[in-house]
């Protein structure tokens, strides 16, 4: 797969319509990001000095992951092509996932020190990877530092945690003050508001405005919700359920996919939420093969409008039906095929503006067989995903592709040219996704064949020369024997 991708990149580089590289890190907007979503505790354990009462065998306990480990393994994230790493909550907490906050003014001691978090941020920025932190407010610890003096700021949840009343002006002041102090001390690039749909809308708008006056960073939601003033992006409602249902097995209904493709612009799109079960669990329940299902789903996720959000462990097809089972420790010693596929797709998205912000035209959608076009004024792509149990074909007219063009597949290596009837015929085997770059038809590569001809002549001359030398040597040896 990797070799085919590299060949495709070389073909694209020689195409008449070149693919422009992504904007530099300081010029990126939220629509240019590809987000990798982790929990510090479950990513990588660099040292044991902060392993306080760690019980790796207990899925509900701290496992030892820390800031130093995240910095140490940052190249895993960078090499896969992600541009923004969300590291979850980092404040002092009574739980490994950081949600049950004890104090917004302190870092969780299991995760590491002030210096280690600053090193992680600096390392990420050196690699042009942005860093985002979660801000929990609706499930904090009953021992939260504010709870004793200001119990009226909270309501109690069924599980015994506390929810801050974000409509309360005093609560708003304290949260804004705490977040402002945090981003002044740590140069992170974004804050994700946890349980965002439950927050007061006025608070969200005010929080974002005041935070951005301190430093212009992203403020996004963590759950599905409608667009809300103050949020740079929200998780698209219904997208996760729709995509998981469409790709958990082959021959699944395509209803809803065309609308999803055309309406996801500017929204966060994810399929493997850290809030519950993993997509792999859906596949296993259908008795499917997770790597194949993941490859097809990721092909759509990375080539559609919206901002892709990939959870840690998706690259290893991590399983789990509920928390904390779905928050396993990341195993980096895994088969690389799925990681390579993610890398190929992120490279494509990072180098193609049309894939990130271009328009979408759905050309065909039936059960398990979807074809769509991504394009802008400079470049055009055709994405074909055959998630069915049989080989599929489609004829695309010249008014979609253009005349005298060719379509070069980046993953399977196919080249599709205009036929005598003026159409372009795409054929894909079952459970295959392909991305075609539309370029000017190149025809026969005369320079290539000329070079082959010259190489052949030189090779034959070399053979002839060796033969003549060998014949002369034998003649000389025979002459010596008869002398």
TrEMBL record:
The keyword Hydrolase applies. The chain crosses the membrane at residues 447-467. Keywords: Hydrolase, Membrane, Metal-binding, Signal, Transmembrane, Transmembrane helix. The keyword Transmembrane helix applies. Residues 37-349 form the Glycosyl hydrolase family 13 catalytic domain. Coiled coil: none annotated. Pfam families: Alpha-amylase, Alpha-amylase_C_2. Its cofactor is Ca(2+). Residues 1-24 form the signal peptide. One of its GO terms (molecular function) is hydrolase activity. It comes from the Bacteria. InterPro entries: Alpha-amylase-like_C, GH, GH13_cat_dom, Glyco_hydro_b. This is Alpha-amylase family glycosyl hydrolase. The lineage of its organism: Bacteria, Bacillati, Bacillota, Bacilli, Bacillales.
